[in-house]
Please model this.
Amino acid sequence: MQPTFTGIPDRPASPDVAVVVDVMRAFTVAAWAFRRGAEKIVFAGTQEEALELKARHPGWLAFQDGPPVPGFDLANSPARLRSLDVRGRTVVQKTTAGTAGALAVADARLLLCASFLVAGATAEVLRRARPDTVTFVVTGDGGRAEEDLACAQYIAARTDSPTADPAPYLDRARHSDAAARLAKGVRLGWEGVHPEDVPMCLEANTFPFAMTATRMDGRLVLRPVDVGAQA
Model:
């Protein structure tokens, strides 16, 4: 498998296989939502679209990044997600990095969304699919986010070797600009940020499912795909 690491493309070329990575915090939140029983996640391109979808579907929840926004149920915090009952629910998610990256490569034949929590399961899906090439989309900081690149490179390494050690990759993420910004937010009391967010983003191979995105009724929809226990 030949990996390519890129930022969110301005002019999508529809790669055959794409893995979109957002560690802090969109796809950590998505993984926890599925772990807590959410049925599916619908990606929205704008906040207005997300709120419109929520209004049209009673019972749906809406998540966004940044500070809390009226009408949204969560400001993209995995720790704060614990206070929500998402069992059996559909979530609409809109973020400036993760969901934007997924929408940019929505026509990929196989589209996976990943964070460290599902890195091992994501690598297992790639190992079974045996693609010649994989495009890893590094979504944060204009394609320069160290935590996303580290996670992408770990997934690539684990695809080749299931015993690849996540520790050095997690250490890079731990010392990333994104981790520092979230820690600063905690110190300054920013709304929508929780002290446990960064530690929850730095857990590797915690869940036995990958997250695949496919088009459904004109929308890009994320669902969990169980691949068995991860070491």
Remarks:
- Residues 2-223 form a domain with the putative 2-phosphosulfolactate phosphatase fold (CATH 3.90.1560.10).
